[in-house]
Amino acid sequence: MAKLTEIGWEEYSGLSLDEKRPYLARWEGDGMPYHTLFAQQFDRGLLERLCALANRIRFINKSKEGALYLKNVLAHKRAMLYFSQPSSRTFLSHLAACQLLGITTGSVRDAATSSEFKGESKEDSIRTFSSYFDMIIMRSPEQGLAEKMAWELSNSDRPIPILNAGSGKDQHPTQALLDIYTLIRSFETKGGVDGRTVVFCGDLLRGRTVRSLSYLLTNFNDVKQVFIAPQELQVPDDVIAILKKKGVRYEIGEDLKAGVKVADAVYMTRIQDEWDTAKGASAKIDTSRFKFGAEELALLKPDGCLLHPLPRRDEIATCCDHDPRAMYWRQMRNGMWIRAALIASTFGFEKTIMDCGY
C-alpha cells in the first residue's frame, strides 16, 4: 500500500485527488481514511459503513449504560482542535463527538493565542501539538494546509492523523459527510438517495461545502445536480468537470422556483463574503432571487427536504423553520454523530462499537 512516507511533498502535491487517495488510507484492504482531507476519499461503501456506525453510536448512547460504555471506548486518546478560522458549529460538533467517545480534548481557536503570534511556523505548531495529542482536527482559511500538515506529520517521529474541518475555499469533507448522512436518513424509508434531484442555491463559487457534497453525491446512482446562483457566484468549472467525467446529469440556472419544483432536496448556502477580494464586492451582486421563503416552501415536494450548512442570514426565511421538511437543525445534530463515527473509525474502533452488546 502506498504511504506518505514513500513520496516527497512536491511529487505528492502534483497528484490528482483520486491519485492521492491510496496514500491516505488507514491500512491496506480497509479503505477507511487515516487522514481525512477531501471528499474524494469516500466511495459509497465507506459512506454506508460510516452511516451505519453513526446509527449504532446513536442507538448505544440512548441509555445511560450505553453512553458510559461509549465514553470508555477512546478514553485513552487525546485530540487537538486547532481552529484558526472562526467556527461554532464545526468546532462544537467535533468537540461533542470527542466527548461522546471519552476523548480528552485541547483547543486553539485563534492563532493570536498560540506561538504563531511570536512568529512560529504552522509546521512547528503542528509538530508541537502532535507531541501532546493523538489526533489533530484542524480548520484553516489557508487552502491545502491540512493536506500539507498531514504529509509533514506522516514523515515525523509521531505520525498522528489529521481531520480536515475546513480548508480554504476548496474542501470541507466532514460537513459533506453530515450532509450525506442527513440525506440518507431523510430518504431511508422513501426509496433512498438514488435517482433524486438535488438543487444547490447561493454562493456556489466559494462554498466549499457545495464542492465536497457535489462529489459525494456522485457515489449514488442517477442523482441529478442543479446549480442555481447569480452568474458571478455560479458553480466553478472544476466541479462541472468532475460531473462530466462521471457522467452525472446536471443543470445550471438562475430560477430558484423552477428548481424547487423538481427538487427532492434543496441545499441553500449563504453568500461567502469573507472571501471577497475587494471590500463590499459581494454586496454589489443582486441575490434577491436566491432566497427560500414561504412561496418556495409551497413548491417543495411533500417528501422533499431543505438543507443548509449554516450559519444563515436571510437566504432561508424563519417561517420555514417549523416545517417537517426543514432539515437544517437535524443536519447540525447529525454532524455530531457522523463525526463521532469518523473519529472512532480513524482509530480503528469501528468493529468494537458495531459488535458491542448494547
Written account of the structure:
Helix content is 40%, strand content 12%. The chain is of the alpha/beta class. It has 2 domains: 4-172 and 334-354, Aspartate/ornithine carbamoyltransferase (Rossmann fold, 3-Layer(aba) Sandwich); 173-331, Rossmann fold (3-Layer(aba) Sandwich). The strands form 2 sheets. The protein has a 5-stranded parallel β-sheet, sandwiched between helices. A 4-stranded parallel β-sheet has the order 2-1-3-4, sandwiched between helices. Helix 8 packs across helix 13 (328-346). The radius of gyration is 20 Å and the shape is globular. The model has no long low-confidence stretch (mean pLDDT 92).
Class of secondary structure makeup: alpha/beta
CATH superfamily of the largest domain: Aspartate/ornithine carbamoyltransferase
**CA-atom Rg in angstroms:** 20 Å
Counted up, domains total 2
**Total strand segments:** 9
Assign the CATH architecture of the largest domain: 3-Layer(aba) Sandwich
Arithmetic mean of pLDDT = 92
Q: How far do the termini sit from each other?
A: 35 Å
Q: Beta-strand level of the residues, as a percent range?
A: 5-15%
Put the structure in a nutshell.
The chain is an alpha/beta fold and 358 residues long. The chain has helices at residues 9-13, 17-24, 44-60, 64-73, 89-100, 122-132, 145-154, 173-187, 208-217, 237-245, 256-262, 294-299, 328-346, 350-354, and strands spanning 78-83, 104-108, 135-140, 162-167, 197-201, 224-228, 250-253, 265-268, 305-307. It folds into 2 domains: 4-172 and 334-354, Aspartate/ornithine carbamoyltransferase (Rossmann fold), CATH 3.40.50.1370; 173-331, Aspartate/ornithine carbamoyltransferase (Rossmann fold).
